[in-house]
Design brief:
alpha/beta, Rossmann fold, Aminopeptidase, 2 domains, 12 helices, 22% strand, binds iron/sulfur cluster
């Protein structure tokens, strides 16, 4: 066997692999090529750890210094679950190319030491590329030495990465039921990813009880509900906020009702729903009005409804059977404000 090229993902994983190759009397050099390691400072730490680990030894480290964020992400976005296959093949293909161009007779990879990698897939890809480039793929199951190698790395005090490499793996160390997931600092919780979307609601009557929280009269609600569009903010499987939007003219809309389920209040859902609707409606409309009690004026002004339009005196007294109170405030007048939908 001639000289082989050891594709190397990082310093810690290389320790047991290089020892093994030496014990087997295999002549080899290291190749650093890992476009999967992000963000940049993580890439630099791993690259430099490897270079420094071997700088005073007889083991040569070849470096193809390609951060590769754009290439990597372009190839895995929307195929995230199949990303490792792209990741393995890209790194091993470059290794085979480099080996071929520089007189090596074969190649292998330190990825074969990790119990977290898809070992069989790595083997398959390595063998396929070896055929393609007319090289030998030196398959060695380094996995039995994984713990030993990691311990030696810790003893040497070198940088030990906390995740495989890509940002997806960085996330999954927190966001999976992996019992070995790292402990976050006190008081810090990893956010659970939620599926949030805005949905048009056709079964409007199902939301009457919720709408009553913001407008406590069925008579009032039915005056606008049938001629309005109703949208809900869905978080995972649940509609948490609802907005009712009525068209007033070719250029103007009115927000008739905006409400969030009590248990979900204070999480910014109504704001999110309103922002999304304003963003969509601005293609066709210039202005959105809202009529509100005094109490809610600051909320709407913050959402861009900052132009005062007019006041309807005693609106809540004249149009509702019962008195309406918001905390200590007796609602009497209705204040109209508007938002310029085209304003940036
Ligand atoms: S999890 Fe690891 S092997 Fe898989 S794509 Fe990310 S960096 Fe590559």
């Amino acid at each position: 066997m001639g000289k082989i090229l050891l594709h190397t993902c990082c310093g810690p994983c290389s320790i047991y692999c290089t020892k093994t190759l030496k014990q087997m009397n295999i002549d080899f050099e290291i190749l650093w090529y890992n476009i999967n390691i992000h963000p940049y400072m993580e890439y630099v730490s791993r690259r430099d750890t490897l270079i420094n680990l071997y700088k005073d030894t007889d083991i040569k480290v070849n470096v193809i210094d390609d951060y590769g964020l754009i290439e990597f992400t372009r190839n895995v976005v929307q195929r995230e679950n199949a990303r490792c296959s792209f990741c393995y093949e890209t790194r091993l293909r470059k290794t085979a190319e480099y080996a071929k161009a520089n007189g090596f007779t074969g190649f292998t990879t330190t990825l074969l030491i990790s119990p977290y990698q898809n070992h069989e897939l790595l083997k398959q890809i390595g063998e396929k590329l070896a055929k393609e480039y007319d090289l030998e793929f030196i398959y060695i199951d380094f996995r039995p030495g994984f713990r030993q190698g990691q311990q030696e790395a810790r003893d040497l005090g070198i940088y030990m990465q906390k995740y495989c490499g890509c940002v997806y793996s960085e996330e999954s160390r927190y966001n999976t039921p992996n019992p070995q997931k790292p402990v976050l600092p006190k008081g810090c919780e990893y956010p659970i990813r939620r599926n949030v979307c805005v949905k048009k609601i056709e079964n409007k009557d199902d939301y009457i009880d919720l709408l009553l929280d913001a407008d406590p009269s069925k008579t009032s609600i039915y005056k606008y509900l049938n001629d309005s569009d109703v949208y809900g903010l869905q978080v995972d499987e649940e509609i948490v906020s609802v907005a009712v939007i009525c068209t007033i003219s070719k250029s103007t809309l009115e927000l008739k009702n905006l409400v969030t389920k009590e248990e979900h209040r204070g999480k910014g859902y109504a704001k999110k729903l309103l922002k999304s609707l304003c963003g969509n409606y601005k293609q066709k409309y210039n202005k959105m009005l809202v009529g509100t009690s005094e109490n809610n004026i600051p909320f709407y002004v913050k959402q861009g409804f900052d132009k005062y339009e007019n006041t309807i005196k005693n609106y809540f007294v004249d149009n509702y059977d019962e008195e309406i109170w918001e905390g200590d405030l007796h609602c009497t007048d209705m204040y109209y404000y508007s938002k310029d939908l085209k304003k940036k």
